[in-house]
């Protein structure tokens, strides 16, 4: 129920100036309470909005700060790890450089060794004496610690890379040279194997030399086409070199004999054997037992008649008797 006081009105007059119409506003009395209340509500709402936004801003800023700090710490840790890895790589580079220097020194020794095989022992010794010794890994060192800068490490890496590239080229050339040296060595070994250089028996006693002599049966001058080596019955007879047996048979003059072809125009014959232990066409090795000493055929006693033929011509075997059988094994 409304009271009379509520119906009272207030008149608000605005007087712009002299000669102008006065503007009147009639307001209910309740408006006096309504406007301040509305203003208070608006102010409270605005303040609440600012508070909420400020709180949200602070929370967001705090979260962003925490995120930033976490990322900064992570980046710092990563940078420290990268620095540690970089330092480790630099140390490894230094070690690699030292190893490259040592390897280079060893490569030089190998090259001198290769030259020694190629040029002979005297040349190898003279070159070895002229060379400088490789650096020792146990040498005493010292000096102030100066941090290595980027240009220092770059220069070291460039130098190491250049040295390694040069060594690779040297190694390739050395491999080619060593391959050729190995081929020559194998060929030398092959030639040594097929050259009759060992004594064909254990005895070293020569009873008749190569050349003109008085024939033991007729007493007339005759040519002795080999050498006679004294021996006991059934002493072993050895192949003087690798080869292929071309004959293993009996002959009235030669008795039981063996002929071996060693290639390159060289052949050997073993006469007056008591027994032959090989067959024609078989391959024999240097120092292999091929028969036994005897006195068959035209012979005055137990011995081995040994001949060397070069391109079909009988030559003196003595210059070929330069080593023992065991030295060739």
UniProtKB/TrEMBL annotation:
Q: Which keywords accompany this UniProt record?
A: Coiled coil, Membrane, Signal, Transmembrane, Transmembrane helix
Q: Where is this region: Disordered?
A: 118-160
| UniProt keyword Hydrolase present | no
Taxonomically, the superkingdom here is: Bacteria
**Transmembrane ranges?**
30-52
An annotated Gene Ontology molecular function: metalloendopeptidase activity
Q: Which residues form a coiled coil?
A: 72-116
Protein name stated in the entry: Peptidoglycan DD-metalloendopeptidase family protein
Organism, by scientific name, is Paenibacillus lutrae
Taxonomic lineage is: Bacteria, Bacillati, Bacillota, Bacilli, Bacillales
């Amino acid at each position: 129920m409304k009271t009379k006081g509520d119906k009272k009105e207030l008149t608000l007059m605005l007087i712009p100036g002299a000669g102008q119409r006065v503007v009147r506003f009639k307001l209910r009395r309740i408006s006096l309470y309504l406007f301040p209340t509305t203003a208070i509500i608006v102010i409270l709402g605005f303040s609440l909005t600012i508070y909420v936004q400020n709180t949200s801003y602070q929370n967001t800023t705090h979260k962003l700060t925490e995120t930033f700090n976490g990322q900064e710490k992570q980046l710092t840790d990563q940078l420290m790890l990268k620095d540690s890895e970089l330092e480790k790589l630099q140390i490894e580079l230094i070690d690699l450089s030292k190893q490259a220097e040592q390897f280079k020194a060893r490569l030089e020794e190998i090259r001198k060794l290769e030259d020694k095989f190629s040029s002979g022992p005297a040349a190898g010794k003279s070159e070895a004496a002229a060379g400088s010794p490789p650096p020792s890994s146990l040498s005493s060192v010292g000096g102030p610690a100066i941090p290595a800068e980027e240009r220092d490490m770059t220069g070291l890496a460039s130098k190491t890379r250049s040295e390694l590239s040069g060594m690779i080229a040297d190694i390739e050339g050395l491999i080619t040279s060593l391959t050729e040296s190995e081929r020559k060595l194998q060929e030398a070994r092959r030639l040594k194997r097929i050259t009759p250089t060992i004594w064909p028996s254990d005895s070293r006693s020569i009873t008749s030399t190569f050349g003109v002599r008085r024939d033991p049966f007729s007493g007339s001058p005759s040519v002795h086409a080999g050498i006679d080596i004294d021996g006991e019955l059934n002493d072993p007879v050895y192949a003087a070199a690798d080869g292929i047996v071309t004959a293993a048979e009996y002959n009235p003059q030669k008795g039981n004999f063996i002929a071996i072809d060693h290639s390159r125009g060289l052949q050997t014959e073993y006469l007056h054997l008591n027994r032959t232990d090989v067959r024609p066409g078989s391959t024999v090795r240097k120092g292999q037992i091929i028969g036994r000493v005897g006195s068959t055929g035209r012979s005055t006693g137990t011995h081995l008649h040994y001949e060397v033929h070069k391109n079909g011509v009988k030559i003196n075997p003595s210059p070929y008797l330069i080593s023992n059988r065991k030295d060739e094994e």
